[in-house]
Write a structure and sequence with these properties.
With 113 residues, the chain is an alpha+beta fold. The protein is built from five helices and six strands, in the order H-H-E-H-E-H-E-E-E-E-H. This is Redoxin domain-containing protein.
């Protein structure tokens, strides 16, 4: 999330508004947003409704208690709700760098990163 924050201006230059969605409850998400100094929205999906709709629900994936969690994903959705690009990982530690995302999505929004 912090890496995404460092590239927020680059995303905005492409007309992309970054946001993060977590299955954490709103209180925990607010604490995370403050702790990490995130200026983009950190949305909550505690019931994993969005994660389920996007096929990201990892049933029993929480190693601490076996609860359901969301798979780590980066998704570019246009204003009509169409998914233009996605990167889904099975490992929360494996995430593309903002530069890699920018390189992939710039042609989709017809701009140069």
């Amino acid at each position: 999330m912090v890496q995404l924050q460092t590239a927020q201006n680059d995303f905005e230059e492409l007309g992309i508004s970054p946001a993060a969605i977590s299955v954490d409850d709103p209180t925990q998400s607010q604490k995370t947003q403050r702790r990490l100094n995130l200026t983009y929205p950190l949305l909550t999906d505690p019931g994993a409704t969005m994660a389920t709709a996007l096929g990201l629900r990892h049933e029993g994936g929480n190693p601490m208690d076996g609860s359901d969690i969301a798979r780590p994903a980066r998704i570019l959705i246009d204003r009509t709700g169409r998914i233009l690009w996605s990167d889904i990982s099975e490992n929360y530690r494996v995430r593309p760098l903002p530069e890699q995302i920018l390189k992939e999505v710039a042609p989709l929004v017809n701009r140069t990163p």
